[in-house]
Write a structure and sequence with these properties.
With about 260 residues, the chain is α/β, with parallel strands linked by helices. The chain has one domain (about 1-250): TIM Barrel. About 40% of the residues lie in helices and about 15% in strands. The protein has helices at about 20-25, 45-50, 75-80, 105-120, 130-140, 160-165, 185-190, 220-230, 235-250; strands spanning about 1-5, 30-35, 55-60, 85-95, 125-130, 150, 170-175, 195-200. Strand 2 (about 30-35), helix 2 (about 45-50) and strand 3 (about 55-60) form a beta-alpha-beta unit. Helix 3 crosses helix 4 (about 105-120), helix 4 (about 105-120) crosses helix 5 (about 130-140) and helix 8 crosses helix 9 (about 235-250).
Length: about 260
C-alpha cells in the first residue's frame, strides 16, 4: 500500500470529480492520504472530507503564503487538532520566495504552530522555501524536535535534510523528484535513511513525470514511489512498505 502524505483534496480542482479521484487512488494502491489545511476558513471542508472517508486524514494550520489571514492562536490550533481525524499541525513554516519585505509575522505564525503542536502532542507539517536557515533556527529555538514532523515537498540540500532529521523530522518527496534536472532532490532521496522517507503529491500541484504540467492527484504518488525506489536501488514494494510504516508511526494512524 502507498500513502500520499500531503495533498489538498478540498481544493476546487477536485470538487466535481472526487469519486473518480478516490477510485484512481484505489486502482493505484494508494490506501491513505493526508489532506492538508492551508487556512482556517476552509478547514471545515478539510475536516468534512476526513469525516466522510476512512482513507482521508486531516491537518489544521495556516500556510505561510496566506498573508491576510487572521492569525490563529496557539490554543485555537490545538483545540481544532483535538478532532480524532486531525493528525498534524500545519501546513506551516516560512516562504521567502513568494512574499518579500518584513516577514516577522510569518516567523511568529510559525512559532505559534510549533507551540500548538507541542500543546496537543501532534507532529508538524513544515513548508520552507528560500528560508531553510530561519526555518531550522526557529524549529531549534521552539523545541520542535519534541513532536517531530515532516519537511514537506523537500527541495533543499542533503545538509539541510540531515539537520532536519537530527531534529526528529522526516523528509517528504513530491513529483519534483521525477524531474530530470532535479539532481539535488534526487541525491537527498538516494542518501537519507529510509526510515525518514515519506512520499507525497502536493496535489493538485507538481504532477510527476509522465503527467508533468497536468493537474496532479493522489494516485500519481505511485510515480514518486517508483523514482525514489529506483534511486535507492530497492523494489517498489520495499519502498511502499517503508514509507507507509514511516507515515503510520509518525502520525500514529492505522493502516486500513
Amino acid at each position: 500500500m502507498l500513502v500520499d502524505s500531503h495533498c489538498h483534496l478540498n481544493f476546487p480542482e477536485f470538487a466535481s470529480n472526487l469519486p473518480e479521484i478516490l477510485a484512481n487512488m484505489k486502482k493505484n494502491g494508494v490506501g491513505l492520504v493526508l489532506c492538508v489545511s492551508v487556512n482556517l476558513p476552509d478547514f471545515k471542508e478539510v475536516i468534512a472530507l476526513a469525516e466522510s472517508y476512512p482513507q482521508i486524514y486531516a491537518s489544521v494550520g495556516v500556510h505561510p503564503d496566506y498573508a491576510d489571514e487572521k492569525e490563529p492562536t496557539v490554543e485555537e490550533l490545538a483545540g481544532l487538532a483535538n478532532h480524532p481525524k486531525v493528525i498534524a499541525i500545519g501546513e506551516t513554516g516560512l516562504d521567502y520566495f513568494r512574499l518579500k519585505g518584513d516577514l516577522e509575522w510569518q516567523r511568529n505564525r510559525f512559532r505559534n504552530h510549533i507551540r500548538a503542536a507541542k500543546l496537543c502532542g501532534k507532529p508538524l507539517i513544515v513548508h520552507t522555501r528560500e528560508a531553510a536557515t530561519d526555518t531550522l533556527r526557529i524549529m531549534e529555538e521552539e523545541g520542535a524536535s519534541i513532536v517531530g514532523g515532516v519537511m514537506h515537498c523537500f527541495t533543499e540540500t542533503l545538509e539541510i535534510a540531515e539537520r532536519a532529521i537530527a531534529l526528529n523530522f522526516h523528509i517528504s518527496f513530491s513529483g519534483i523528484v521525477t524531474f530530470k534536472k532535479a539532481t539535488q532532490v534526487k541525491e537527498v532521496a538516494q542518501k537519507i535513511a529510509l526510515e525518514r522517507v515519506l512520499i507525497e503529491t502536493d496535489s493538485p500541484y507538481l504532477a510527476p513525470v509522465p503527467y508533468r504540467g497536468k493537474i496532479n492527484q493522489p494516485a500519481y504518488v505511485k510515480h514518486v514511489a517508483e523514482e525514489v525506489a529506483r534511486l535507492r536501488g530497492i523494489t517498489e514494494q520495499e519502498l511502499a512498505e517503508a514509507t507507509t510504516q514511516n507515515f503510520t508511526r509518525l502520525f500514529r494512524t492505522n493502516v486500513i
